[in-house]
Give the backbone structure.
Amino acid sequence: MTKSNLLIYIVSGLMLATGSIYFYESYVEAQEFNTELTAQVETTLFATAGILYFPFGIWMIKSKLASRAPYIISIIGSAALIVLYIASRNVNLPIVGLQEDVGVTDLASKVLQGGIVVLGSIILVRSKRFQLAEIK
């Protein structure tokens, strides 16, 4: 197994683990579900993120480096969710307001997403197609 393949499997594992955390958070939020718009928005966001992380993780495994798209999309999506999390803890956002709670699953998902951003970027930089595209 090459280093590139190992990194691909690690990033795919991080994707699946992150998707699992988001599904768990969606389930927890749904248990507290009420008619408040905030709870509905959070449940929808968590479920959507959970749903999207799984196929992208599988796409990475299947395509290896034949396509850079799953890596680019996953890096952008993970970075956006990290920024949204930080913003929701520091700024009074429309609909959800200012969130003051910081949980273990919150931090775990952000660490995993940080890993996806870093390792996904490393895979892209090391890929021959990326390097050849930069030269042309």
